């Protein structure tokens, strides 16, 4: 981020004052990452789209309650993960566990497509809490401390969850190969 | 395969720059439209009939209460408050007792099935009929729900048609859609980051959690997996109300 670009915190203050342009800049900055996380939590693009909209709606409604002692991105990821986890709860209850999960399939022509689909599937089999932590880490690029604050857990729990999630993914991938 | 291989694969998958870059203006406009819709929440008023066993009847009305029997008035007042919180998105469960003594057995079984549908989700009429003990009585189940004496408290609005259409509702299809929309946007399990206790949304303890200390969980088990414990108050109350229904 260059120096003249506004920080997340100043954009959130702008949203709180009702500035439409500040909100659009925030959406532009986070839309891609939010969508990438929501899609891996919920599987379907339509559900992910809905969750991202709901998260931005919460940002719009609650920006006035934003406490500047929070880092802007941490606050935004808290909002997103809260929405995604509840959407995942509903989705899981709607679909019996026996039903096969549809992996997020991308351009199949790419040479690494099969490998990517395998990783997507292994990711989709992780428990919700472990998965959202992993996604915050890899998609959001959050530090352990930030993830701990986002999910209201200790830094040690973040580490153990990440370690366990990766071991579990390795098992799933080895089963397949 | 080592853990660092996994690390590499995750990076390749999740940081490959394939993040969809959509038009932020369109997304922002969609969100604003949704905000405008959400703020148009009409206030509903209910007429309640309560007995000493619980709420026996709930209808849209002028806010009247008919209470007969000891404690009936208090139960009605509590129900009114819980309904207000529910419609404001501040509550995801009801723990006031309902009185289904005057309801015939099959209808009672249908209402019990409907009461078991988790908050924020929907089930088809056929599911409710099967759970009530007669998988072929789908229409009868629909009729039983249409005559639900205590809508909302027994969530018959969570029953929809198998083809995905919402179907009818005792208070009209548009209110059904609004209720489902409200539940869709309201979480069920909320944890407090300072006490590490997870509550049902609407529990008296949960209502005291500050805005920056609220973290949503998918289930008590998921919350436990990261070091939270369940609240003793709302768990017990919700379980007692579930038995009662």
Counted beta strands of chain A: 0
Distance between the termini of chain A: 41 Å
Low-confidence stretches of chain A: 97-108
Gyration radius over CA of chain A: 17 Å
Mean pLDDT of chain B: 91
Q: What is the strand arrangement across the widest sheet of chain B?
A: 8-6-7-9
Write structural notes for this entry.
- The complex is a heterodimer of chains A (177) and B (245).
- With 177 residues, chain A is mainly α.
- Helices cover 71% and strands 0% of the residues of chain A.
- Chain A starts with 7 loop residues before the first helix and ends with a helix.
- With 245 residues, chain B is α/β, with parallel strands linked by helices.
- Helix content of chain B is 41%, strand content 13%.
- In chain B, helix 5 (125-131) crosses helix 6 (138-146).
- Chain B is globular, with a radius of gyration of 21 Å.
- In chain B, 38% of the residues are buried.
- Classes of the chains: A mainly alpha (177), B alpha/beta (245).
- Chains A and B meet through helix 2, helix 3, helix 4, helix 5 and helix 6 of A and helix 1, helix 2, strand 6, strand 8 and helix 8 of B.
Task: List the SSEs and their pairings.
The complex is a heterodimer of chains A (177) and B (245).
Chain A: H1 8-16, H2 20-42, H3 45-62, H4 72-94, H5 113-124, H6 128-138, H7 144-151, H8 155-176
Chain B: H1 3-14, H2 24-38, E1 46-50, E2 55-60, E3 65-67, H3 72-87, H4 105-115, E4 123-124, H5 125-131, H6 138-146, E5 159-160, H7 173-184, E6 189-192, E7 197-200, E8 214-217, H8 220-225, E9 229-230, H9 232-244
Parallel strand pairs in B: 1-3, 4-5, 7-9
Antiparallel strand pairs in B: 1-2, 6-7, 6-8
Helix pairs in contact in B: 5-6
């Amino acid at each position: 981020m260059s120096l003249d670009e506004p920080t997340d915190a100043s954009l959130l203050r702008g949203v709180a004052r009702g500035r439409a342009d500040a909100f659009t800049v925030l959406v532009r900055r986070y839309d891609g990452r939010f969508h990438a996380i929501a899609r891996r939590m919920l599987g379907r693009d339509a559900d992910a789209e809905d969750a991202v909209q709901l998260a931005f709606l919460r940002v719009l409604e609650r920006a006035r309650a934003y406490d500047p002692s929070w880092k802007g991105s941490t606050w935004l990821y808290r909002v997103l993960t809260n929405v995604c986890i509840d959407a995942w709860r509903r989705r899981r209850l709607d679909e019996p566990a026996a039903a096969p999960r549809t992996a997020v399939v991308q351009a199949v022509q790419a040479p690494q497509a099969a490998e990517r689909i395998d990783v997507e599937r292994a990711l989709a089999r992780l428990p919700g809490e472990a998965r959202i932590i992993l996604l915050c880490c890899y998609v959001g690029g959050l530090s352990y401390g930030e993830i701990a604050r986002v999910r209201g857990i200790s830094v040690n729990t973040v580490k153990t969850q990440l370690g366990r999630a990766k071991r579990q993914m390795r098992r799933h991938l080895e089963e397949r190969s | 395969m080592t853990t660092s291989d996994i690390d590499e694969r995750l990076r390749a998958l999740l940081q490959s720059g394939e993040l969809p870059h959509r038009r932020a203006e369109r997304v922002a406009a969609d969100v604003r439209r949704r905000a405008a819709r959400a703020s148009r929440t009409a206030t509903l008023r209910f007429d309640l009939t309560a007995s000493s066993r619980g709420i026996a009847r709930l209808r849209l009305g002028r806010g009247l209460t008919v209470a007969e029997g000891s404690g009936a008035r208090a139960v009605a007042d509590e129900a009114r408050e819980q309904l207000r919180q529910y419609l404001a998105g501040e509550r995801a469960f009801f723990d006031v007792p309902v009185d289904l003594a005057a309801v015939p057995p099959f209808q009672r079984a249908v209402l019990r099935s409907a009461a078991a549908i988790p908050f924020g989700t929907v089930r088809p009429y056929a599911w409710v009929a099967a759970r009530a003990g007669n998988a072929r009585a789908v229409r009868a189940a629909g009729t039983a729900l249409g005559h639900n004496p205590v809508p909302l408290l027994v969530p018959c609005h969570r029953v929809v048609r198998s083809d995905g259409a919402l179907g009818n509702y005792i208070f009209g299809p548009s209110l059904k859609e609004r209720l489902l929309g409200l539940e869709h946007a309201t979480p069920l399990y909320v944890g407090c980051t300072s006490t590490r206790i997870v509550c049902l949304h609407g529990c008296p303890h949960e209502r005291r959690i500050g805005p920056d200390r609220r973290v949503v969980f998918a289930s008590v088990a998921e919350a436990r997996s990261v070091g939270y414990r369940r609240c003793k108050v709302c768990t017990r109350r919700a379980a007692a109300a579930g038995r009662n229904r």
